Every structure is written in structure tokens, then in C-alpha cells.
TrEMBL record:
Top-level lineage group: Eukaryota
Keywords: Signal
Source taxonomy: Eukaryota, Fungi, Fungi incertae sedis, Mucoromycota, Glomeromycotina
Protein's name in the database: Phosphatidylglycerol/phosphatidylinositol transfer protein
Residues of the signal peptide: 1-20
């Protein structure tokens, strides 16, 4: 009878050890989604960020693409204007990530006139 208990104990110990082993997590790509408050005619952007996920204190590169729905005739801030409606817009911007980030944070990328 004691052999059965020893065998059962060894099997349970093995099972718990296997379950306790850390699993390799899948890398999750950062997802950029449209803001829910924006009007329906807002430009949808395709954004790729490298490195992904954010590396604290490192330079982040954002490749931003989209098709303009309205003319952008003035501004020249980070891009060269004019950009006509229907034109595929593409820019690469760099930003240095802060040295510290909270557990949850938001990255916003927008195109605006003004």
C-alpha cells in the first residue's frame, strides 16, 4: 500500500514540476487602431513601429502610411506639403522612448490640419 502512495506522490510531484516550468511567451506585435471618437472621414493609417515592443530609452522608428481624404496645403511640419487628396502618404518618424514607462501606456499617431 505504501508503494502506491509513493508512486502517486512521485507522479503528482512530476506533474506539478512540469506545470511550474515557464513557457516561452509569443511576441505580440503592437496594434494601432483608429480612435473611437474620430469622425468617419478620418484617415486610416498603417503604422509599423521598430523596435517592437518599445525599448526604454531607445530610438523608436514609426513607418506611417495612409491615403489622404482631403488636401493638406500648408504646414510642412515633419512632412513636405502640399499633399493632395487621394495621394498615398508615407513618412518615417523617429522618437526617443522615455527611460521609464508605466505598466500600461498609449501611443498616439495622428495627422491633422491647423
Amino acid at each position: 500500500m505504501s508503494r502506491i502512495f509513493i508512486l502517486a506522490f512521485v507522479l503528482f510531484a512530476t506533474l506539478f514540476a512540469v506545470n511550474a516550468a515557464p513557457l516561452e511567451l509569443e511576441k505580440r506585435e503592437t496594434q494601432f487602431t483608429p480612435c473611437p471618437d474620430f469622425p468617419p472621414d478620418a484617415v486610416g493609417l498603417d503604422i509599423k513601429m521598430t523596435p517592437d515592443p518599445v525599448v526604454l530609452g531607445a530610438v523608436e522608428t514609426f513607418d506611417i502610411k495612409g491615403t489622404m481624404k482631403k488636401d493638406i496645403i500648408a504646414g510642412d511640419w515633419l512632412v513636405t506639403c502640399p499633399i493632395t487628396a487621394g495621394t498615398v502618404f508615407s513618412t518615417t518618424q523617429e522618437y526617443t522612448a522615455p527611460d521609464e514607462l508605466p505598466a500600461k501606456y498609449t501611443i498616439a499617431v495622428a495627422i491633422g490640419r491647423g
